[in-house]
Specification:
The chain has four helices and five strands; from the N terminus they run ββββααβαα. It has 101 residues and is an alpha/beta fold. The chain folds into two domains: 70 residues, no CATH class; 31 residues. The strands form two sheets. A three-stranded parallel beta sheet has the order 2-4-5. A two-stranded parallel ribbon has the order 1-3.
Length: 101
C-alpha cells in the first residue's frame, strides 16, 4: 500500500500507472491534476482514495470526480453537529422534566 495522502503533492499521476504490484493507493488531499490513468487498478480506486484533488478526474468523467466527494467530510461534520445538538436539547428537556416531578 502506498499512502501519499495529505502531502501537498502536485502534478500528474501518470508515472504511477506503470506500477504492476500496487494493491492500494491513497492520494487524497493533495494538489494532483490531470486524468487518472485508465488501468484496471486505477478504475477500482474509491472516491475516498482521490478526494481533495480538485483538478484530478477520470477519463470517462467530464466533471471533476474528486471535487464531488470533497464535501463529504463537511457534510458528515454537519450531521454530527446536528445530532449532538439534538442530544443536548433532549437531555436538557429530560433534566427539566425530572426537576418538575
Amino acid at each position: 500500500m502506498l499512502d501519499f495522502s495529505h502531502n501537498h503533492l502536485s502534478g500528474n499521476i501518470d508515472v504511477l500507472s506503470s506500477l504492476q504490484s500496487l494493491v492500494n493507493l491513497n492520494i487524497s488531499y493533495n494538489n494532483l491534476s490531470g486524468q487518472v490513468p485508465n488501468t484496471t487498478f486505477f478504475r477500482h480506486l474509491t472516491p475516498e482514495d482521490i478526494v481533495g484533488n480538485e483538478d484530478l478526474h477520470f477519463s470517462n468523467d467530464t466533471s471533476n470526480t474528486a471535487h464531488h466527494h470533497h464535501d463529504i467530510p463537511h457534510i458528515m461534520n454537519l450531521i454530527t453537529l446536528i445530532l449532538i445538538c439534538i442530544a443536548v436539547v433532549l437531555i436538557l428537556f429530560l433534566v427539566k422534566l425530572s426537576l418538575n416531578m
